[in-house]
Amino acid sequence: MSPAFAVLWMALQAGPPEPPAVRYPLDLPPSPDFLAPGQPFQLVDLSYDLRDTFSTRHAFSARLRVRDGGYLTAGFEGERRDLVLSTQRLDLVASSEEGSYDFFGRYRAPWLVATAGGRRHGRGEGEGWRLGGSLAGRLSPSFELLGRLDGETSAPDDRFLRFASLRFLWQRGPGFEAAGEASHERVRTEGGLDNTRDAGTLGVAGLAWGAELSGTARLERTRGRFPREEGDAAMAARVPIRSRLLAEGGIRSRYEVGVKRTYYEYRGALTWFGRRLTLPRAGEAAARARDLSRRATAMGYNERLVFDDDGLRALRERLSLSPRRDELLDGMAAVYAAQVQERTLPLLGVEYVYQSDALTGTSVETVRAIAGMPWPPAWPWSAGADATPFLRLDVEWQRHVSGPAFAADAHGLALTVSLNREMDLVLRWRRSDPTALDAIQGVGRPRTFELSYVYARGR
Amino acid sequence: MTRRETSRLPGREIPGESRPDGWGVDRRRFLRLAAALPAAGAGVLGEGCAIDDGAPLPSPTPDPSPSPSPLGRPVPQVNGGINVQPVRRLDQDPNEGEPVIVPDLVALQLRAVYALGFDGMRITTPFGDRANFLAAIPYVRAARAVGIDAVVVLHDFAGFTLAQALYDPARRPDVLRLYASVFAVPPPPAAPGLPGLGPRGAGRIAFQVLNEPVHFLGIPADVYVRDFLSPCYAELKAESPNVIVVSAAEVGNVDGAGRMRSMLEAGLEGACDRIAYHVYSRQAIPLLSGNVRGLVWVTESGAVGTAQHLPWVRDTFPEIAAGIPDVSRIFYYQLFDRDPGVHRLLDIQPSGSGYRAVVESTALHAWFEGHVREAAAGGLLLSFDDLVPDVRAYFPTESDRRAYDSLARS
User: Fold this and answer.
1) To the nearest whole percent, how much of chain A has pLDDT over 70?
2) Which terminus of chain A has fewer Cβ atoms in its 10 Å neighbourhood, N or C?
3) Quick check: A1 pLDDT over 80?
4) DSSP 8-state secondary structure symbol assigned to residue B9
5) Chain B contacts of A441, Cβ < 8 Å?
6) Chain B contact probe: residue of A187, A189, A197, A226 with most B CBs at under 10 A
7) What are A262-311's pLDDT values in tens digits?
8) CA distances from B282 to A165, B112, B213 (A)
9) What is the value of pTM for the model shown?
10) Which among A431, A399, A401 is positioned nearest to A414, based on CA atoms?
11) B267 touches chain A (CB under 8 A)
C-alpha cells in the first residue's frame, strides 16, 4: 500500500472533517448539504446587477437545482437572454442577443469530453453560422489531448474551415501544470484582407521555493498581404513573505520578431492578510481537490483539477448529481472544510500596473489600494482566528495617456459587503475623464454606478 | 488618354507613374523618364487635358498678370515635394483683430518652393485656427497657379476641433464642402505651359485627412480608417470628384510602420487615392510594405540637425524609393520653421521693411539648386515674380471669410 493511499484511507475512515468554526455577519451552517435534492427545486444561485453609465443596464440570473437531475439557469443581461441546463455529464446552453443566437452542448464521457456549438450571426454581422466542435481525450488521469475545429457557413472566401487547434493539458498535480496549443486560423481583417495565422502557445503554472509561479509564451506567424511574426511572453509570481504578507509581480511583453517590442506591462502588488495566507495551489484544499478529482476520474466522471472557489463549487455540484455521489461526499466535504480553513482575508494592499502599447500609442498607469475589515470587526493586525471577510474598500486611480500626452484620469471606488461565504453585496462607482478619442467622438465624462448582489450556495 | 504624374526624387528622374484618367489607383510600374520630360510633358499635356478640378476660380483682384512665355520657361520640377508652414506674420500683436497676412512672407516661401524646383507643396490648414486657415489660402492658390501640386492637410495644429467635425456625420459634409470650395477650385494658371498636372498646367489639389492620427489625436488605426478616412473619402469624392484624397501617415519610425499596417488591414487602400507614409528612420523603410494597392506619397521625410539634411536627402530618399517601390513622391520636411538647426532649410529674417530668406541648410539648398540648374541646361527660366507679381491676388476673399465664419460659428 502506498503512503498516499494509506493517508487517504485513514482520512476516509475518520469521516469528513468538520469545517473550522468561523463567524459571519449572517449566520451560515458549518457545511452545506452537498447532496440535498431540489424539492423539486432549490435555489442555488441568485444574482442581480444594476449598472448605470449613460443608460441603465440590468442583469439578473437565477439557478435552480431540479431534484437530483441537474441545474437549470435562466438569466438576462441587457438584451442578452440565457438558458442553461446542466446535468452531471451534459450541458446545454442557449442564448440570444439582438438577433444573434448561440447554442452550445457538452458531453462528458468517462475518457472523453465532446463539445459542439454554433452561433448565428446577428444584425450587422452578416449571414450564416459559426460552427465549432471539440474533442478532449483523457489519455491518463493527468494528461488530456484536445482537438478543435471551427467553421463558418458564409465565410467571405468560401472556405468553411476557419480555425483548427491541437492542445495538450498536463496536470501533474497542484504543484505543476503545463498546457500547450498549436493552432491554425484564417482571419478576415476589417478591411477585407484574408490572413492565415499559425500560432504556438506554451504555458506552465506551479509551485517552486514556496512561491506560485506561472508563465506563458506564444509565437504567432501571420501570413497574408502584410506578414509578420509576433511573440508574446508573460511571467507572474506570488511570493509569501512571512505568514501574512504576499508580494506579487508580473511582466508581459509583446514583440514583433526582429523589429521591436510593441507592448509591455509591469505589475507589482503587496497585500497584508488578517490571517495566515495559503496559496491556492499550496494548501490542504488543493491537495483535497486533487484527490477528489482523481477519484472522480477513476470512477469515470472525467474531472480536471481545479483550485479556485468557483471551480471547486462546480466540481462538487457535478459530483453531487452522479450515481455514486454518496461515495464522494466525504471528499466534497473535505475540500469545502479546507477551503473554509484556508480562506483569505486581505485587509490592506496596494498594486501598481503600467501598460504601454506602441501600436495604439497609449500608456495606462493604474494604482489600486484595498482596505478591509474582518468580521468580527478588528484591526488589521488583530483579526481573530475565526475572522472572515466582511467589508472591503477598493480604491483605484488610473491615468490613460494617448495622443500628444493627452491624459485622462479615472477614479473608482468599490465597497464589498460579504454577509457570509455565500452572499455579497457590492457597490461600485467610477468616474473617468474623456480620453483623446472620447473627446473627439463627443463622449462625455462617464460616471458609472453599479450595484450587485450575489448569492452562491455552497461556495 | 493617360496622364503622367512625373514624380521625382531630388536629382533623379525616377519613378513616375502612368495611370488612366479618372484618378484610378491601379498600380503601374514606374517608367524611367527622360530628364527633359517635365517641361516637355507639360507642353504636351498641359492644355486641354481631361482632368479638371472643377470650375475655374473666379479671377481675383488684383489680376496676377502672368508674364508672357518669351521670358523663359518654368523652373523644372526636379526635387519632389516639400512641407511648408502657413506663415502669415513673424511678429506678435496681442490686439490683432482680423488676421494679418504679410504678402512678403507668403511670396518669400513660395518663391523658394518654386525656385528650388519642387513639384508639390504640403501645407496644414487648421480648421480650428481661423488665422492660419485663412493664411494657408494664398499658399495653396498661388502654388497651384504656378503649376505646383498642393497637398492640403486637414489637421489642427492643436486641439480637436477639426477631428471632432470630421467624426460628426452632421458637421462633416459642411466642413468638407468648405475645404472643397476654398481650396479645390483650380486657379487660372499663371502662364501657359506650366508643368502642373492640373487643368491647363496648374497644380492639382490633394486633401490629406488628418496627420498622424494615433500620435497626435489618439485615434486608433482601425478607427481612423473606419470613422474618419472612409466617410471623408466618400464625401469628398461626391463633392469634388477630381480631388486627390490622401490618407494620413503615421509617425515615421518603427512604431509608425506597425500602425500603418493596422490601417492597411482595416481597409485603407479602398478609402483613399494615395497612401501616405512618413519616414524619419531608416529602420522603418523595410517595414513599410511596398505591397500596397495604390501609389504612396511620403508626405514627410527629413533628418534632425542641419548637417544631416543633405546626407538624408541624397542617400535616404533613394533608399526609400528603392525599398518602397510604390513611392511616387517624397515631400522634404521642411522649408521653414522657428526652430534653428533642426529641420528647416532656410530661416526668414526681417530686412528693412520686408523679409529675406537666409539659407540655413546650405549644402542641401545648393544640392536642390544644382539639380534645377542641371535640368534647366542653361535655358532661361521664368522667376516666381514673373509669374506672380503680386501674391495678394491669391489672398482669401470676402467670400472665403464668410464661408469659414458661417461654418465656424454654427
Assistant:
1) 96
2) N
3) no
4) B
5) 167, 227
6) A226
7) 999 999 999 999 999 999 999 999 999 999 999 999 999 999 999 999 99
8) 39, 28, 21
9) 0.88
10) A431
11) yes
Residue A33 to residue A422: CA distance in whole angstroms: 14
Q: How far is CA A298 from CA A111, A293, A302, A311, A313, in A?
A: 10, 9, 8, 19, 20
Q: How far apart are CA B9 and CA B225, in angstroms?
A: 29
CA–CA separation, B85 and B83 (whole Å) = 7
Nearest alpha carbon to residue A436 among A411, A399, A389: A399
Q: What is the pLDDT of residue B5?
A: 53
What confidence tens digit (pLDDT) does each residue in A423-455 have?
A: 999 999 999 999 999 999 999 899 999 999 999
When CB atoms are compared, the residue of B222, B225, B258 closest to A256 is: B258
Residue B342 half-sphere exposure toward CB, CA atoms < 13 A: 8
The Cα–Cα gap between B44 and A261 comes to: 52
DSSP string, B225-249: IIIIIHHHHHHHHHH-TTPEEEPPP
Q: Domains for chain B: give ranges and CATH numbers.
A: 2-48+62-409 (3.20.20.70)
Position A80, amino acid: R
* Over residues B223-250, mean pLDDT: 97
Q: What's at A53, amino acid-wise?
A: T
User: Both ends of chain A: CA-CA distance in Å?
Assistant: 34
Look at residue A50 and tell me whether its pLDDT is greater than 70.
Answer: yes
Mean pLDDT across chain A: 94
Instruction: Name the CA dihedral angle for B243, B244, B247, B249, rounded to a multiple of 10 degrees.
Output: -120
Query: What is the mean pLDDT of the segment spanning A315-333?
Result: 97
| Residue-wise pLDDT tens digits, A381-425 | 888 889 999 999 999 999 999 988 899 999 999 999 999 999 999
Longest dimension (CA), chain A: 72
